[in-house]
Amino acid sequence: MRIHLRNKKIGGLYIRMKSIRFGLCAVLILGSLLSWLAGAAAGAEDGQDAPDAANGVAVIPVNQTIETGLQKFMERAFAEAEARGVRTVVLEIDTFGGRVDAASDIGALIRNSTMETVAYVNGEAISAGSYIALNADRIYMRQGSTIGAAAVVTVSGERVTDSKIVSMWVGAMSGAAEATGRNPDIAVGMVDETVKVEMPEIPRTKEPGQLITLTAEEAVKVGYASAVVDSLEQVMKELGVSDYDTIEPTLAERLARVLTHPATTTILFILGLAGLLIELLVPGFGVPGIVGICSFALYFLGNYVAGFAGVEHLALFIAGVLLLVLELFIPSFGILGILGIISLISGVVMAAYDTGNALVSLGIAVLAAGVIVAVFVRYFKHKGVWNRFILKEELRTEEGYVSHKAKNELIGRTGTAVTPLRPSGVVQIDGERIDVVTYGDWIAANAKVEVVEIEGVRVVVREVSPSPGENR
Question: What residues does each domain of the chain span?
Answer without folding.
Answer: 2-40+253-388, 49-249, 408-463
